[in-house]
Amino acid sequence: MPLPLTSEQLDAAIAAESFSGVLTIDVGAERTLERCEGFAHRALGVPHTPATRISAASGSKGFTALAIMRLVEEGVLGVDDPVRPILGDDLPLVDGAVTIEHLLTHTSGIGDYLDEDADADIDDYVFSVPLHTLAETEGFLPALEGFPQKFPPGERFAYCNGGYVILALIAERVSGRGFHELVQTEVCDRAGLIGSAFLRSDDLPADAALGYLEETGDRTNVLHLPVRGNGDGGMYLTADDLHRFWNALLDGRIVSPETLVEMTRPRFDVPTEHKRYGMGFWLGRRSSSLILEGYDAGASFRSTHDPETRTTVTVLGNSSEGAWPVIFALADAMDGTTKGKFPDED
């Protein structure tokens, strides 16, 4: 696949918000573009490499959905199962009609502990509980409490972070295994991923990038996000692993082809995002592209895969805004549009 923009245009997109991170394009087994910009650790001058582990924020929701669907394939769960019996006395404001499928497709209508529609800046302090308590799934329960149902389950699409934490909680309770272990064994290991994992932000290995709030300076996101990500985000991924992931997914090594068809069936057109949604995956609005995307304090990410050409375009950024000009500049290659992230784009 030829690069859909000149090197000068790509350089301009990289410079627009001082992109820091890793950009790769892989076509089949061939890497056709690789750019590593900026630093994984600014103060120490540690440069990015294609193997740098960078937080994908909400991009890891696809991994949560796959872990759930592995349990469905094993007969431990059903997509039509109500979640209320599994939650028991916890989270009593979750409607009794909410099912696993509602949570997977963002149609549960439950109140969200991280409301995407709230008028907040990306570097605001939005959590109501101490971040060090948000390391294991059960530890998120106090943060999820007290949010009334917004609309009846199944009525419409409304992106919900809390729903994916509840999915992680459900996965643990029905399997008897920790959520992070489930993702590792049922998704990462099956896909042959080498470096991707849920890491603690206060205990990062040398090959993991710090997440920076701004495009300059050394201030990180460690006081803005859970100390370890969970069902709704925060997994650290590598560009190399992402191409392995997409190929494994399409080759039926994570879930069956039939399950993948169900997960990537367009359920909703989401005009404000210029995309469609399946189960855990965004979908191209006018193409067959599969998309993982994340945006958070210190993280800006999108990986898009074209199943027809086995082309993966990945942009992993370790600052809040730096990756978006690059993502938009490359979007034409996959979906014929530069629209992609912000609902107020022209």
TrEMBL record:
Subcellular location: Membrane
Keyword field: Hydrolase, Membrane
Gene3D superfamilies per record: DD-peptidase/beta-lactamase superfamily
Primary localization: membrane
Domain annotation Beta-lactamase-related: ranges: 17-323
An example Gene Ontology molecular-function term: hydrolase activity
Matches recorded under SUPFAM superfamilies: beta-lactamase/transpeptidase-like
Pfam families the UniProt entry points to: Beta-lactamase (PF00144)
Listed name of the protein: Serine hydrolase domain-containing protein
Biological source species: Microbacterium lacus
Highest classification ranks of the organism: Bacteria, Bacillati, Actinomycetota, Actinomycetes, Micrococcales
